[in-house]
Every structure is written in C-alpha cells, then in structure tokens.
Predict the 3D structure of the following.
Amino acid sequence: MTEQNQGTANDPKDRKPYEELRKQLTFSFKNLWNPDNQEEINSVMAFCEDYKVALNEGKTEREFVKFTVGLLEENGFRAFKPDEQLAAGDRVYDSVHGKGLVAAVVGSDSPVKGFNMIGAHIDSPRLDLKPNPLYESNDFTFLKTHYYGGIKKYLWVAIPLALHGFVTLNDGTTVDISIGENEEDPVFYITDLLIHLSSDHMQKKASDVVSGEELNILVGGIPITSDEDVKERFKLGILKLLYDQYGIVERNLLTAEIEIVPAVKSRDIGFDRAFVGGYGQDDRVCAYTALRALIDIDQPLRRTSVCIFYDKEEIGSSGVTGARSQLYPSVQKRIVRSILGREPSAFELIDNIEQSVMLSSDVAAAYDPTYASAFDPLNSTYAGRGIAIVKYVGRGGKGYTSDASAEYFDEVTKLLDKNNIPWQTGELGRVDLGGGGTVAVYQADLGITVIDCGVPVLSMHSCFEVTSKIDIYTAYRAYSVFMEQMRIED
Ligand code: MN
Ligand code: MN
C-alpha cells in the first residue's frame, strides 16, 4: 500500500459520519469539575465545610445521632410521638435507641401511596474495647480491643487514637466520654515493632502481620505509688484517674460501650482541595448529604420523605439497631398511623411498604489507578464523576445482594437526567476479587423497591478515607430531587 492511498483512505472528512454515529449511540460518564464555573465550585466547597464538621462531631453512631438530632431541631423537626396526628409539612424524628434514627417530612399525599426513603448507615469500622479491657504489663497499662467491621489491622498501629464511650455508672447515671479529639487531649496508641527487629515480622502475610490480640491500646505508664509491693499499681493509677474524672470503676467498664477511632480531624486533600479526607466517611458521607437534603426540602411536599440512619451495617446489619431490626418498619408504621389519624388496616400498611421507594445510600468503591488491577475500568465508579447508582453489590456471582430491577434503575436515573444531576454506575471491583453488602437487601426483604446509591470512596475502611467534594455535593442534589420529585406525576 502506498502512502498516497493511505492518505486517501484516512481522509478526516470520511470519519465525520462515524463520529456523529458515535455521539448518537455511545455513552460515557464525564468528570464533573468545571474550573470555569466558579459559582458551582464555591457551592461545593461551602457544602463540604459543613460536612467536615459533621464528620468531626459524629465519629461514632451515638455521636452522629446526637449531632443529627441537634441539626434537625435547629431546622424545625421535633421528636415524634407515636400517638400524635401528623399533617403535611410536619417535620419529625425518632431516635432508635440512640444509635439509629428515622426522620421524616410529611407530604400531602396519602401514606398509602408510599414514601420516598433514603437509608444510610452511621456506624464505621473501628476498635471496640473488650468487656474486660484493662491490664498492666511490664510497667505499661493497656486496653484490650476487639475490632468491629472489616479492617486491615496493620493500619491501626502507630497512629494517634481517640476514645469515645458510653458508660453506665454504679448509681445508674450515664457518662459520655470523648478523649483525644481536642488539641490539648492526650491520645492513645497501638505500638508497632521497630523495623530494626522486623526481619521475621516482615515475612508475615498482611492479614497476619498484626493480629486481633495484638491490638492493645497503650493508655498509661505512671503507677499509683512507687511502692513496688502494691499489686497492679500501674492499672490502679489509671483506674484512679477514671474514678476521679468520671466516677468509673472497673465494674462499669464491663457493661460500657467504648469505641476507639483514629484521632484525626477531617481535612481537605490536595493543592486544589478537591477531596475530603476523614475517618468514617463510609457511610456518613451519604448520611450527611441525605440529612441535609431532608432538612432543605422545598415545601409543599407531595410524598412523605423519610431518612433512615442504621447502626451495625459494618457487622451485617444485625442487632436491634441494625437494618434487619423490626424497629425501623415499626416506626414507619407508626408514621403511617399518625398521618392517617387512625389505625391503618393491614392492607394500608402493606400498600405503604409496596409503594415506597428507597435509595440505599452507601458508598461505592472509587477506581484507584494505583491499584488498577483490582478494578474493571469499564465498570468502575470514579471519584469526580458524580453519585454512583449501583444495581448490585454482593460477592461470588452476585451473592447476597438485592439486584435492583431494570425498571427502577431506569426510573431513578431518568429522574436525575431530567434534573441535570450527573450520575455514574459501576461495580464494586473485579469479579470474584472480594465483595461487599449494603442495607438494600433488608429493605428489599420488607418489600420496598430499592437501589444502592452513594458517593465513591478511595481507601474505604481505612483510618482516613477520601471522597471527591464534587461527588458529595452531587449526592446532596440527587437526594433532594429524589425526596421531592420521585413518583410525582407531572
Ligand atoms: Mn457502607
Ligand atoms: Mn463499610
């Protein structure tokens, strides 16, 4: 073939129809940052300043519920009383044992037509204290832990840790503890083996390099007395401090809930501040954006909007405050009763569930070019490309996922398209590499139509997770539209 022929065959004019056809037939997701739209960038940055405060204030499920209740009450929500009558425009919330929460803005449509619901979880992977945690060893005082949720244990050594707890005292009063978050606070610590003596250690598999029984927290080193014959004098030194400060005795530690989290504040990441770094963004990034969308709802509202925050997602949604608990549908039934102003019939309750639609708002895995082999680039969700709508998660051939229907997936995404809200879709990662679950299955079990949807996260389940600010803002916009407009006929 001559050069001349090649030139003729590749005439750019001949390509035009294919380019047109490509435009017409293909589809791709775009990065959303637009440096020419300073107004939008300002809105994104401002929203994320508030979000970072929420991350810092709510580092445990209990704290996040408290933070949420404060914000709701500032914005016209009141505690829901099951025997009260609710009318369109009413704003109520119901705490579920202080670790979960249901909040609603009542719409004018009958509850029998269903609710627009968003569910997120507010627990995050962490270290919990064992029931009998305190001991001394070789002049150190330690707390023993049992990790909660899926963590890489080696990430928790040699970093500053904070202690957040809820303790019931002998007299029945309770005390909330938070140590390690303020600049002047001490922090806590799990030691690492020095590299100089690690030739054996470095041969271990990553899953074994730090074991669960090695996650012992250093909490003290000054004995209560210099008299070496006093038994457990180092442990006693710490117990005395706990007693003097909080009235806590060792008996109270047995029944307490004390959680160890990274002692880090959320921060901007990057020269351009494109990202938020922080602990517990899985799944408080979805919880906070949904909460703000609920608070900012444009009245009057047609369908009642409900926001649910679940506990215990990271350990399988079990327990009375987890998404499998009957408490959440019970609150929903009570809201139906209060709106109707009478006992609903069994069928009215069934209709409410059947006609309700939900976004199971949980984070997605953001494609990470440094670990590219873990992802299918065609089917990944990317930081900076908007909220991820995910048909299924699960593991090993879609095991244990709700696998949303094509109809609902299309309905949700068409609503977003109509409102110019960018979204993307993908899977968790490479097939058979691992997997994960969300609360969607449990809502689907009840009969609620549901799809997973959330913000892509880098370094998920690490001590300092990363999200793109434009995705956070897009999630907020998407949740607003879903609550206000889903299933509203024009
Ligand atoms: Mn999650
Ligand atoms: Mn998680």
